[in-house]
Design brief:
The complex is a heterotrimer of chains A (122), B (173) and C (625). Chain A has four helices and no strands. Chain A is mainly α. Chain C is an alpha+beta fold and 625 residues long. Chain C is built from 17 helices and ten strands. Classes of the chains: A mainly alpha (122), B alpha+beta (173), C alpha+beta (625).
Chain lengths: 122, 173, 625
């Protein structure tokens, strides 16, 4: 009887552990799907779209997650099939250095100009 | 003078933007992304339509042959429009048609084939659409040309027509 | 039909009246008479009436379903309800341009009437600059976007209006938004006129402030209406997607808000004259750029109007000419303001300067994010997407600092100030941080980042709230700032606390989700004039056994043949319950998406508060300043 109880406890705790990691998986899945563009819609993510294409992508993402692929690997897989523009987050690579850095550059440049005009012209 | 310099710099920058946007407008006319580089066909296992057994992609595609992978469904209306052209292409010895039955009910698909004819040497079942994604497809109907080195060299989104058939014929010579 | 002829010839006459106006104005400009030639006002009124007549003719054609008119054919259908036949007039490219023209001519006429105490030369020059814009639009309409093209043989039926556009919020969203956009044209014209005549001064600032406020209020409400429409109609439960067209409305708003703040400095202290002119130019330019990006098809978005590159070329050239012209005028005529260099670092002037600094940063983020893909595509043929993650990552850190600064810098005094009530500020700050920690700890979210963000928002919230009760200073501004803090808080908690459940469900099935049960009771079919609908009756029970009924629909429209999902939303003070469904192909299953979205009503309310602050400022009596 004791052994049976122990087995039950172990079984349920494993189930609980599965639940927690299921929650995490579900969260990652939603995060990925929201970051993928539905290519046949006009400006919707795969997560929000009801189209056939979105359905297929949802299945593929589920499959890849269950195969153990990480988030970046899934994006790389999709980018390989469809091009960079399927992912909404533009990433930080040689194509996007200017994209990310230009606003920051402008901000600090403007700050420098302002400080120069205020402090040094006295 | 400093001001004049800034003015000219700004107008120069504006002209640069003008040229970019002007070119951008031109690009709209060729909007669909084209496959410029030859991609390898994906490695997969899929169920055969008739025998219901799983086959490997290695066994389906052999080097030295041209293949046409056509994604179709019984519920897809443009697929009916392009079907006669597929039947015509079946006559060509130099190309083999592989059908991908996309998100379909087996019975409906079988009825479709029985009614309109079977242009494919082999049909694979893609019940959840994941196989099409492996090929990089957008939806149905879509057709891919595979060359003799097992690479995808061209993609046609939407139903094929007379013009596309001519284009295919030129490529598979 | 007759309406089409009248509409078309009114436009031609309107263009003619522009040329006439220019000639008469130039003559009057050079005349020694102190009072403006009354003919100018009459001509301006005539021009307005001609455009109104043209617009009314188009409405009549739509109402009569006159398919000999190409625009009506493309965008309407006999079975459309009357309200949408009328609103369909401006729901398409050609009609919306006519709306632009109508507001352009209306506003310049109103400007002439309301500026009687202003110097004659200034009024005339403003009119002239505005006429350049008006002529440009007349030419654009007549040459590339004629709403009165004739179709022969006359079709029996039209192509219909996209069903997602058949919505009340969308019917009034363009007019209100355009009142905002086009209002900035008057600011543009008058700023250029003032620069040329060396009239950028306190008096001009006081005079133009009303126009800035009016445009700003309409633009704010217009953007809100667009978000409301997206939320209620598009079915994904979101209200802002950093979609290019949304960004395009945001950019002039950011510039206009910065301008509004600079105008207060101008009217009080006669400083920041260059900022005011540059911002006046940039705000209108951004509105026009927006027009270009949306209507040329160069951007891919859910909102894209008409994909006609030829139209894009016209606007591009027009824009290039306008911007170059205004830049040249600025550089030739703008006088350096030496007062600007006498800034003390802790003063209200500096706080406006800092505000400009941050606003321009936010503007650059949105602008670069929106147009960079175009540049990259042309230069290197690489196609990338710039979506919400980009904007959120670049804006949020700066927003935190911005919120903190907003909490005390607006209360600094002019010229030279110190921070008074340091103690109460510190206390409020500590309360905000503690409150945020308490809330965030109880939720399973990223602790540090969210706490900082929420604390900053709470800090602004409490400081402005306290200020509202003090009643000492500027209530209008405090109200708007309070509204802004409420907006940030609502959006933050909405995004942190929103939950959703997605599943397939059959009729009669009960589904258990994390907080209760969803039950699909029954399905009803209904037939309306231009669509058939399948209505599903759901009962949703939550943890406390409270039950609500939601009835989402699937609509099948006849012309054009489209299927849409209509969400059903139950709004309450605390949250919105949002249910949308779609039919799973080949099954009797329905795929449903149930979301609980907290504080949605507060998001809309806070934007209304922001606008209301602006309204209060508009009607403030002169002696209260």
């Amino acid at each position: 009887m004791k052994i049976f109880k122990i087995i039950l406890i172990v079984f349920f705790s494993l189930g609980f552990y599965q639940l927690k990691s299921d929650e995490k998986t579900a969260a990652i899945e939603i995060k990925i799907l929201k970051n993928i563009r539905c290519l046949i819609c006009q400006g919707q993510s795969v997560h929000d779209s009801e189209s056939e294409f979105a359905f297929s992508i949802k299945q593929i993402v589920k499959k890849k997650i269950s195969e153990g692929l990480k988030e970046k690997q899934i994006y790389d897989f999709l980018k390989d099939k469809y091009g960079e523009w399927i992912v909404y987050d533009p990433g930080f690579n040689k194509n996007t250095y200017i994209l990310w850095l230009l606003p920051l550059l402008l901000f600090f440049l403007a700050g420098a100009i302002m400080i120069k005009k205020l402090i040094f012209k006295k | 003078m400093k001001n004049k310099f800034i003015l000219f710099a700004l107008i120069g920058f504006l002209s640069f933007c003008f040229v970019i946007f002007y070119k951008g407008l031109d690009n709209i006319k060729i909007y669909k992304p084209k496959i410029n580089n030859k991609k390898d066909i994906p490695v997969f296992r899929a169920k055969d339509f008739n025998s219901n057994i799983y086959i490997d992609s290695e066994k389906i595609f052999e080097k030295g042959n041209f293949y046409l992978v056509n994604i179709w469904s019984s519920w897809c209306v443009p697929c009916r429009d392009e079907h006669p052209f597929l039947m015509k292409l079946k006559e060509h010895q130099s190309v083999r048609l592989i059908g991908l039955n996309y998100r379909d009910k087996l019975n409906n698909a079988k009825n479709f084939i029985n009614e309109f004819g079977n242009p494919y040497t082999k049909i694979l079942i893609d019940s959840d659409g994941t196989l099409s994604v492996e090929f990089g497809a957008y939806g149905v109907p879509e057709t891919f040309i595979i060359n003799k080195d097992k690479k995808i060299i061209k993609k046609f989104i939407g139903p094929i027509n007379e013009k596309i058939v001519e284009e295919i014929k030129l490529i598979i010579k | 039909m007759l309406a089409n002829q009248i509409g078309y010839y009114s436009l031609l006459l309107g263009l003619l009246s522009s040329f006439l106006l220019c000639i008469v104005s130039v003559k009057d400009f050079n005349s020694s008479n102190n009072k403006i030639n009354q003919n100018i006002l009459s001509l301006s009124f005539l021009q307005l009436m001609l455009v109104v007549v043209s617009f009314l003719s188009l409405i009549i054609s739509f109402v009569n379903s006159d398919f000999s008119n190409e625009t009506v054919f493309n965008n309407s259908h006999t079975t459309k309800p009357l309200f949408y036949k009328i609103s369909g007039t401006w729901g398409n490219h050609e009609g919306s341009l006519l709306l632009w023209l109508m507001v352009l001519t209306l506003f310049i006429f109103l400007f002439l009437i309301k500026s009687r105490e202003q110097p004659k030369k200034y009024r005339i020059l403003t009119l002239l600059f505005q006429q350049i814009i008006i002529i440009g639009f007349f030419l654009f309409v007549l040459m590339t976007s004629n709403p009165f093209n004739y179709l022969f043989p006359v079709p029996n039926e039209g192509l219909g209006l996209n069903p997602i556009l058949q919505d009340p919020a969308l019917a009034i969203h363009p007019p209100i938004l355009y009142l905002g956009y086009v209002g900035t044209s008057v600011i543009f014209s008058s700023a250029l006129a003032a620069v040329v005549l060396n009239y950028i001064s306190k008096d001009w600032g006081q005079h133009i402030k009303k126009w800035v406020l009016v445009s700003w209020i309409f633009l704010t409400v217009g953007i809100m209406l667009g978000s409301i429409w997206a939320y209620y109609e598009l079915g994904w439960g979101g209200f802002w997607f950093w979609d290019p067209v949304e960004n395009i409305s945001l950019m002039p708003w950011l510039s206009l808000t910065a301008l509004l703040h600079c105008i207060t400095v101008l009217e009080k202290r006669n400083m920041f004259t260059s900022w005011v002119v540059i911002l006046s130019i940039s705000t209108f330019t951004l509105s026009m750029c927006g027009t270009f990006l949306v209507r040329s098809g160069i951007l891919n978005s859910i909102h894209t109007f008409a994909n006609d590159p030829a139209r894009g070329v016209f606007i591009l050239i027009f824009l290039f000419v306008l911007i170059s012209l205004s830049l040249i005028i600025f550089f030739i005529f703008q006088k350096k303001n030496y007062k600007d260099l006498q800034l003390f670092w802790l003063s209200r002037e500096t706080s406006v300067l800092i505000n400009n600094w941050f606003m321009m940063y936010f503007l650059s983020v949105v602008l670069i994010g929106t147009v960079y893909p175009i540049f990259l595509d042309v230069i290197s043929s690489e196609k990338i997407s710039v979506g919400p993650p980009f904007y959120q990552k670049l804006i949020t850190p700066f927003l935190i600092v911005f919120l903190l600064l907003m909490s005390f810098v607006p209360r600094l005094k002019w010229i030279k100030s110190k921070i008074d009530n340091k103690n109460s500020l510190i206390i409020i700050f500590i309360i905000s941080v503690m409150l945020s920690l308490l809330i965030i700890k109880n939720l399973k979210v990223d602790l540090l980042f969210n706490t900082i963000l929420v604390s900053a928002a709470f800090f602004l919230f409490f400081t402005t709230l306290k200020e509202l009760f003090d009643k000492k200073l500027n209530i209008a501004q405090t109200l708007s700032h309070f509204g802004f803090s409420l907006l940030v808080l609502s959006i933050l908690f909405n995004s942190i606390l929103s939950s959703e459940t997605i599943t397939n469900i059959k009729i009669g099935e009960r589904y258990n989700y994390s907080n209760g049960e969803i039950f699909l009771k029954r399905i009803e079919k209904k037939k309306e004039s231009n669509f058939e609908s399948i209505i599903a009756y759901f009962e949703i029970k939550d943890r406390n056994s409270k039950t609500i009924e939601l009835k989402p629909e699937i609509r099948i429209y006849n012309q054009p043949k489209t299927i849409t999902s209509e969400a059903d939303i139950k709004t309450s003070i605390l949250n919105d319950k949002f249910l949308v469904m779609s039919h799973v192909k080949g099954n009797e299953y329905f795929n449903i998406r149930y979301q609980v979205k907290p504080f949605m009503i507060w998001i809309w309310t806070s934007v209304l508060l922001i606008s209301f602050g602006g309204l209060m400022s508009l009607f403030k009596k002169k002696n209260e300043k």
